[in-house]
Amino acid sequence: MDPRPDIHLGHEMTPTTHTGPIPVVSPSADAGERNASRRTTVAVVAALVLAFALLVLMGL
Fold first, then answer.
1. What is the pTM of this model?
2. More confident residue, 5 or 14
3. Averaged confidence pLDDT in the chain
4. In which region does residue 58 sit, left (phi positive, over 0), alpha (psi from -120 to 50) or beta (all else)?
């Protein structure tokens, strides 16, 4: 006897069988998102460096 109850998934949880082609995105179409990602990375690195510098100065 299985102690786990049967769970019936709704139609939104059933696996899809659609295997159509994946659309190709040109590199120029994705450039805006890449630039935003690069800016975010630079901002995070700058914030971490600034925080480290402040911690070092406070420790002196």
1. 0.44
2. 5
3. 77
4. alpha
- Round to whole Å and give the CA distance between 16 and 9: 13
Q: Measure the CA–CA gap between 10 and 14, rounded to whole angstroms.
A: 7
Each residue's pLDDT tens digit, 11-35:
555 555 666 777 777 767 666 666 7
CA-CA-CA-CA torsion sign (53, 54, 59, 60): positive
Q: Which 8-state DSSP code applies to residue 1? A: -
Long-range pairs for 35-42: beta carbons < 8 A, 24 or more residues apart: none
